[in-house]
Design brief:
This is Aromatic-L-amino-acid decarboxylase. Homodimer. It is an enzyme of class 4 (lyase). GO terms for molecular function: aromatic-L-amino-acid decarboxylase activity; pyridoxal phosphate binding. This protein is α/β, with parallel strands linked by helices. It has 3 domains: 70 residues, dopa decarboxylase, N-terminal domain (Up-down Bundle); 254 residues, 3-Layer(aba) Sandwich (Aspartate Aminotransferase, domain 2), CATH 3.40.640; 98 residues, Aspartate Aminotransferase, domain 1, CATH 3.90.1150. It has 14 helices and 11 strands. The strands form 2 sheets. It has a 7-stranded mixed β-sheet with strand order 1-7-6-5-4-2-3, sandwiched between helices. The protein has a 4-stranded antiparallel β-sheet with strand order 8-9-11-10. Helix 5 crosses helix 7. The chain is globular and about 65 Å long. Bound molecules: pyridoxal-5'-phosphate. The site of pyridoxal-5'-phosphate has 15 residues, from helix 5.
C-alpha cells in the first residue's frame, strides 16, 4: 500500500470507526455466533496477490462484527469498564506510525521522556507521596505496564529479589534457592485472580487471607498470618492490598495493613486497577490514604480513565529495587546515557515496549483533568441511580454496598432465582452483565462501563431486568 492509497483508506477507516462508535447503541451488545463461526467465512489460506482495500473494508461487517461483543455499548454492564476515547484512538494511530521500540532511552528518547513526564503528571493528580515521582529527584518513578497483572508480578519479583538479598546477607551459608522457597506472600481472598497467579508465576506461596463481612483485609488479620508463618520458619515477603476488588469493589484497610508491613519489613503493593482512576477526584482521594506505606502502587488508566488499552500505571518508591532485580546488560543495548535516565526495559518483563504514553498525553490535553473527572463522577451518579431503582422494587436486594460505578444485586430468595434471571438476561441479549459470588451468595454485578452511558440507558437496563424478573418463579 502506497501513501496515497493509505490516505484514502485511512479516511474511510476513520469514517467507519466514528460511525461504528456513534451507532453502537443500536447493535446487539452480545453476539449470537457459535464457536467456529468464522471458519467458513475465510479462505483456507492467505491471499497470494494483494486485495483491494474496499474488499477488506466490506469484510469488517461481514466477518468481524457478527462476532464482536460491543464493550463500548452503553448496554454493556459486565466486568469493569475498559476505556475508549477519540483522543486515545488518535494517539494509538500516531504510536502505530512512529512504531518505535522504547526499551532504552536511546532507542527513542521521546518515548522514555514523555512516559516519565506523564507518570509524574498522573502521580501528582493522585496526590501520590513525592517519593513515587521522578521530579522529587529521589529513587522513585513510574512506568507504564501492559496490565495490572504484569504490575503485580513485577512488584512480586522485585520484592523477592530484595528479600533474598537481605536474608542472604544475614545468613551467608544459606543458598538463594532455599531462601526463595521459604518466602510467603499475602493477599485477601477477594483479590483479583491475577494476584494468586503472580504467586504461581513468581514461585512464591500466596496466602489468601479471609475477610470479614465487609470483604476487607485488615492489618490485624495480616499480622496474625505473618506471625504464624514466622513461627513455622517461613519468611514473609510481599503483600498485595486491593482498593476496589473485582467482585464487589471493596477496599482493603491499607491504613492498618501499612504499619504491619512496616513492622515486619514486607513489600506492600497496592492494586487499584479499576478504582484508582477515581482518586483524581478530590472527593474520593481519601480512599488512597495509606499509600505512603506502599513500595509500589498500580492502577489502570485503561479501565476508567479514558485511555485505550493498554496502559497500566505502576509507581515505585525505589525503582532501583526493580532495576537491580532484572538487570542484564548486553553490548547491543548499551548507550552513552546509561544510568542518567531510566532504561525502561529494566522495569518490566518484556524487552520491547510501545509508545503508550502518547495516549495519556493526548487524553490529558484533549479532555483536560476536568473532562476525566466528569467521566468518573457521571459513572458514580449513574450507579447510584440504578441503586435507587433497585431499592424501590422489593423483589430485589443489594447484598453489598454499591461502590464507585458498581452495584451488586440479587433476587430475594434462593441463588437459583438469581441464576435464572441471569440466564434470561443472557438469552435476551439486550444488556450484558456478569455474576459474582461471595461465600454462598450468588449475585449479579451491574457495572457502568461505557463513556456514553446515559440515565436513559440505565433506565432501559432496569426495565429489562424488571420485566425478565417477572418470569422468574418464586421459591417453592
Ligand atoms: N486487579 C483488579 C482489582 C481488577 O479488577 C482487575 C481486572 O478487572 C485486575 C487486577 C486485572 O487487570 P489486568 O487485566 O489489567 O491485568
Amino acid at each position: 500500500m502506497e501513501a496515497e492509497a493509505f490516505r484514502t483508506a485511512a479516511r474511510e477507516m476513520i469514517d467507519y470507526v466514528i460511525d461504528y462508535l456513534e451507532g453502537i447503541r443500536d447493535r446487539r451488545v452480545l453476539p449470537t455466533v457459535e464457536p467456529g463461526y468464522m471458519r467458513g467465512m475465510l479462505p483456507e489460506e492467505a491471499p497470494r496477490e494483494p486485495e483491494p482495500w474496499s474488499a477488506v473494508l466490506s469484510d469488517i461487517e461481514r466477518v468481524i462484527m457478527p462476532g464482536v461483543t460491543h464493550w463500548h455499548s452503553p448496554h454493556f454492564h459486565a466486568f469493569y469498564p475498559t476505556a475508549n476515547s477519540y483522543p486515545g484512538i488518535l494517539a494509538d494511530i500516531l504510536s502505530g506510525a512512529i512504531a518505535c521500540i522504547g526499551f532504552t532511552w536511546q532507542s527513542s528518547p521521546a518515548c522514555t521522556e514523555l512516559e516519565m513526564n506523564m507518570m509524574d503528571w498522573l502521580g501528582k493528580l493522585l496526590a501520590l507521596p513525592k517519593e513515587f515521582l521522578f521530579c522529587s529527584g529521589g529513587k522513585g518513578g513510574g512506568v507504564i505496564q501492559g496490565t495490572a497483572s504484569e504490575a503485580t508480578l513485577v512488584a512480586l519479583l522485585a520484592a523477592k529479589a530484595r528479600t533474598v538479598k537481605a536474608v542472604k546477607a544475614q545468613h551467608p551459608e544459606w543458598n538463594e534457592a532455599s531462601i526463595a522457597g521459604m518466602l510467603v506472600a499475602y493477599t485477601s481472598e477477594q483479590a483479583h485472580c491475577s494476584v494468586e497467579r503472580a504467586g504461581m508465576l513468581g514461585g512464591m506461596k500466596m496466602h489468601l487471607l479471609e475477610t470479614g463481612e465487609s470483604l476487607t483485609l485488615t492489618g490485624a488479620k495480616l499480622e496474625e498470618a505473618v506471625k504464624e508463618d514466622l513461627a513455622r520458619g517461613l519468611i514473609p515477603c510481599y503483600v498485595v492490598a486491593t482498593l476496589g476488588t473485582t467482585t464487589t469493589c471493596a477496599f482493603d484497610d491499607i491504613l492498618s495493613i501499612g504499619p504491619v508491613c512496616e513492622k515486619f519489613g514486607l513489600w506492600l503493593h497496592i492494586d487499584a486497577a479499576y478504582a484508582g482512576a477515581a482518586f483524581i477526584c478530590p472527593e474520593f482521594r481519601h480512599l488512597l490514604n495509606g499509600v505512603e506505606y506502599a513500595e509500589s502502587f498500580n492502577f489502570n488508566p485503561h479501565k476508567w480513565m479514558l485511555v485505550n488499552f493498554d496502559c497500566s500505571a505502576l509507581w515505585f518508591k525505589d525503582a532501583s529495587l526493580v532495576v537491580d532485580a532484572f538487570n542484564v546488560d548486553p553490548v547491543y543495548l548499551k548507550h552513552d546515557q546509561q544510568g542518567v535516565v531510566p532504561d525502561y526495559r529494566h522495569w518490566q518483563i518484556p524487552l520491547g515496549r510501545r509508545f503508550r504514553s502518547l495516549k495519556l498525553w493526548f487524553v490529558f490535553r484533549l479532555l483536560g483533568v476536568e473532562g476525566i473527572q466528569e467521566n468518573v463522577r457521571k459513572h458514580v451518579r449513574l450507579a447510584r441511580r440504578f441503586h435507587r431503582l433497585l431499592l424501590e422494587d422489593p423483589r430485589f436486594s443489594v447484598p453489598f454496598p454499591p461502590a464507585m460505578g458498581l452495584v451488586c444485586f440479587r433476587l430475594e430468595g434462593s441463588n437459583e432465582r438469581s441464576k435464572m434471571l441471569l440466564n434470561l438476561i443472557r438469552e435476551s441479549g439486550k444488556i450484558f452483565l456478569v455474576p459474582g459470588g461471595v461465600k454462598e451468595t450468588f449475585f449479579l454485578r451491574f457495572s457502568i462501563c461505557a463513556r456514553t452511558t446515559t440515565e436513559e440507558d440505565v433506565d432501559f437496563a432496569w426495565r429489562e431486568i424488571q420485566s425478565l424478573a417477572d418470569q422468574v418463579a418464586p421459591d417453592v
